[in-house]
Amino acid sequence: MIKFVNAKINIGLQIVGRRQDGYHNLQTLFYPVGLYAGSSSNPEVFCDILEVIPSSGMDFTLKMLGNQVDCPMEKNLVWRAADIFFSNGVPEGFGASLILDKHLPDGAGLGGGSADAAFTLLALREEARNYADRQRKSWQPPTDRQLMALALKLGADCPFFIYNRAAYAEGVGELLKPVDLDLHGYFLVVVKPFVSVSTREAFAGVRPAPSSFDLRCLPEIPVSQWRDCVFNDFEKSIFPAFPAIRDIKAGLYDCGAEYASLTGSGACVYGIYRDRDVALEAMSVLRMVPTIKAVKLLQL
What we know:
Blueprint: E1 2-5, E2 7-18, E3 24-33, E4 48-55, E5 60-66, H1 77-87, E6 95-102, H2 112-135, H3 144-152, H4 158-163, E7 167-170, E8 175-178, E9 187-193, H5 199-204, H6 235-241, H7 243-254, E10 259-262, E11 269-273, H8 276-286, E12 292-299
Parallel strand pairs: 5-6
Antiparallel strand pairs: 1-4, 2-3, 3-7, 4-6, 7-8, 9-11, 9-12, 10-11
């Protein structure tokens, strides 16, 4: 089984309080991106590729290809997801070989690692169910809700990728409600700078405050008007510390974006464009900027 692992953007991100466990309560809107990457209409590659091969006589193995993630194998989110899944109970004799071909940038605010973990849970459930059916073994696969509970143990935005549809999120990002937001027909320019922002750096400058705008209202507001009311609170601290990231957002607007924002806690910035030709021109301009590592165009 092969899964093409998409990413996400945050449309608005409000840090509304600090929790007793040390985490922060937030309000944001998650939107999946890269769903059409690799198709004839959007040939740009923007996904990770996860292959799960059923096996027997073992639990699981993991092989990494593509971009290398700088962490021990047992701390890799795909490894941890598989470990949690198998620890939760699988059909007797079921095992799996996992291969992850990594292309999504890490430390970008796009949720690439979280998506890998969630898709691992989904793929293992499907393969374990097929194995149980073939072997006529009694096994009750976990529900989506149960998978989301397992995903939350791996990261705050992991549950979203089980859901993988536009959603309003509260809590640490795990409390999801569907949002009827459809950006079909728009184009997304995603910009990755050379600089990176650690989660610790991003949260160090956060000052929680009550939300100034109800993000659930976004479907009722034209994208061209989001600039005046939809904000990512991390920009308040990240932009002064990393002016190159601030300049990317300004550059996206200068190149005709209807809305532009930092995504997550950074470091990627995205711009939403109505016209594909305008988006292509923006790519050409931004690729000449020396502080920018990569620019991608995605169909929404």
